[in-house]
Amino acid sequence: MPRTTRYSKFEGELDQIESAELMQMIQEAMLGQGLNDPWDPDPDARPSMDDLFDAILQALVDRDLIPEDMLEEAMNAENVQESRLGEQIRRMMDRLQMDGFIRKEFDDQEGGQGGQGDPGEARFQLTDKSIDFLGYNSLRDLMGGLGRSSAGNHDTRDYASGIDVTGELKSYEFGDTLNLDTTATLSNVISKGFENASESDLVIRQAEYSSSAATVVLLDCSHSMILYGEDRFTPAKQVALALAHLIRTSYPGDSLRFVLFHDSAEEVPLGKLAQAQIGPYHTNTAGGLRLAQQLLKRENKDMKQIVMITDGKPSALTLPDGRIYKNAYGLDPYVLGQTLREVANCRRSGIQINTFMLARDAELIAFVRRVSEMTKGKAYFTTPANIGQYVLMDYMSNKTKVVN
User: Fold this and answer.
1) Based on the domain organization, do 253 and 324 belong to the same domain?
2) pTM attached to this predicted model
3) For 215-239, how does the pLDDT look when each residue is reduced to its tens digit (9 = 90+)?
């Protein structure tokens, strides 16, 4: 039986909850909409320490971790933060900072980022440690039902003279790594005599050739990703963080970058991905593809691919003068034509597009299949509940299949 942690009817001080357990408890709030205002005009705005306080409080309440007397006192207090419960939560926040999960920052009176002074509102930034932690937990959750899977680099049909041997033997050729098979080499040399030995008598063991890949993940953050009572953006971010953790631990030679696309498109660093939010409204698929191509052109990798996670049809374009052309009704011929032109550019550049569609509209299915055919990519029609498994299975196995 695996070890489990039971939180209900918690006995003892809340201080006994470790920072890693606390981060796991507030993971959903960290990745979802709860810690950010999606309509904040400042795209670089960071959540405040008050937001973090509220997220921890909600997590403790949801798990029935707060002693009844402490909870009653907090409910009757004018300010929860001044109660005993508030003091415990502030200590938890301090531990998160001391343990390296968050970095506390202050805004100065003019609204810019300051140092450790008192003026302005206290905010926090996720650290690399917390990004790795969230990625690991997402990866563990997403891969939980997949069973055993081998770790390593991307498999190919080729062989190389590397270190990970396969058992296959071959005669040495100039440029091969000298992974000598001692028995076979000595046998050749002894049979001919040392004085007659030559380079052709050297025998090496082959290794499977593993290629490196450059990937750009395109995340649709248009308004439809949170419409109709379903949050599709948070699962997409969980997948992106899991991919980042997977690549960092199992594919160290690979590169991974992230692009958000909506009315326009912009690259977002890994450190800010967890707090990325929805908006603005429309879906500029062409702009996202164009930016992804620019990023991939800088990479010197064997394979280049775009992983696009979206739930909507292309509905916007960036015009040559910088204005945004929008049409949210049906597949606009002009928008569609310009989007497919970017798809064709990807094909000419040898970039594969793998699309994960979170909707089942007939027009969307036809569009996605056309994109996949043009770039010899893969099309997955899935839901927020299973998108993570299929993204990760595709990345590791590199098998072509359509999930309907």
Assistant:
1) yes
2) 0.64
3) 999 999 998 888 777 788 888 888 8
